[in-house]
From TrEMBL:
One of its GO terms (biological process) is shikimate metabolic process. The keyword Amino-acid biosynthesis applies. It is an enzyme of class 1 (oxidoreductase). It catalyses: L-quinate + NAD(+) = 3-dehydroquinate + NADH + H(+); shikimate + NAD(+) = 3-dehydroshikimate + NADH + H(+). It comes from Glutamicibacter halophytocola. It comes from the Bacteria. InterPro entries: Aminoacid_DH-like_N_sf (IPR046346), NAD(P)-bd_dom_sf (IPR036291), Shikimate_DH-bd_N (IPR013708), Shikimate_DH_fam (IPR022893). Residues 12-99 form the Shikimate dehydrogenase substrate binding N-terminal domain. This is Quinate/shikimate dehydrogenase (NAD(+)).
Length: 290
């Protein structure tokens, strides 16, 4: 037996989270640091629980001795109304993926944005990021757009098939980054915009195992572009492979997956795991087909 102060009990709440690789990444990092740490997926689909019950789940988790939760689709926004405090970044993005329970209070953070930022710095060191074209304005898109603008991107063009969604996202980003040029673009503008930007970021699901393909026509992609993807299943998406073959610098989605896990682990335990070690573990798990 151990108390909440002596060991860690963590959960990932969301739809379809059973195959997530975030639990094993946390558990291995804890093992390396000699911590007692259990991380369980709490799959709303399997449990037939509605996403709207996220507040009750958090309360139940606190009573059952959980230290923290990661929260994913479709609860990242829904959870906002059930927290006692929210970090400035998570508040600005309007989404929380990490909730720590401290003295009975729920504190929300967003490590998707901070994790992507770190991945960008580590995986694309020195790459010019003044002008960027981003595809996808959903949950991941909101976090990575915030991360890009916070790390100095001056012109960000965002394309999404859902016009209302991209317009809303652009308005929110402009409030937080009034000095930057944030622009909603259409798929038809992609070839021209590629001619103007330093890099391309995919935050759509196109390229995932169950959504194969390329999210854009890559005819206008050049070796001078860097290309980043949020998708890490597979880690080598069609886009990453095509860009690498063209000679572009690439950043696969594993960097973001590791970044969000490492940052959440640090928030939960106060210990920062070695990023390269966690990435090695993630690639090992992916190689095994997990
Ligand atoms: N690496 C990580 O840690 C991490 C974290 C979160 C999400 N992701 C990945 O990011 C991807 C997106 O996730 P999400 O939660 O933002 O999904 P989402 O459904 O919230 O948003 C995806 C958006 O992409 C748009 N879209 C789809 N096809 C498009 C196209 N061809 N061109 C332009 N826009 C298009 C959709 O309209 C939608 O708005 C998923 O593959 C997810 O697995 C990775
Ligand atoms: O790996 C996953 O399954 C995640 O759900 C991915 C992303 O949504 C993160 O914000 C979560 O912390 C973990």
């Amino acid at each position: 037996m151990s108390t909440r102060a002596e060991s860690y009990l963590v959960g990932l709440i969301g739809d379809g989270v059973m195959p997530s690789l975030t639990p094993p990444m946390h558990e291995r990092a804890a093992e390396v640091h000699g911590l007692r740490y259990l991380y369980r997926p709490i799959d709303l689909t399997e449990l037939e629980l509605p996403a709207s019950g996220i507040g009750e789940l958090l309360q139940a988790g606190a009573k059952l001795g959980f230290n923290a939760f990661n929260v994913t689709h479709p609860c990242k926004q829904l959870v906002l109304g059930h927290l006692d405090d929210i970090s400035p970044t998570a508040r600005a993005i309007g989404a929380v993926n990490t909730v720590v329970i401290q003295d009975g209070k729920f504190i929300g953070h967003n490590t998707d944005a901070s994790g992507f930022s770190r991945g960008l710095a580590e995986g694309l060191p020195g790459a010019r990021k003044k002008k960027v074209l981003q595809l996808g304005a959903g949950g991941a898109g909101a976090a990575v757009a915030y991360a890009l603008l916070a790390s100095g991107t001056e012109q960000l063009h965002i394309v999404d098939l859902d016009e209302d969604r991209v317009n809303h996202r652009v308005q929110e980003l402009r409030k937080n980054f009034p000095q930057a040029l944030v622009h909603a673009a259409t798929p038809a503008q992609v070839p021209q915009l590629l001619g103007e930007v330093d890099g391309l970021l995919n935050a759509t699901p196109i390229g995932m195992h169950h959504h194969p393909g390329l999210p854009l026509d890559i005819a206008a992609l050049e070796s001078r572009h860097w290309v980043a993807d949020c998708i890490y299943r597979p880690v080598d998406t069609e886009l990453i492979v095509a860009a690498r073959n063209l000679g572009c610098q690439v950043l696969d989605g594993g960097y973001m997956a590791v970044g969000q896990a490492v940052d959440a682990f640090e928030i939960i335990t106060g210990i920062r795991p070695e990023t390269q070690q966690v990435r090695g573990h993630l690639l090992e798990l992916l190689e095994k087909g997990l």
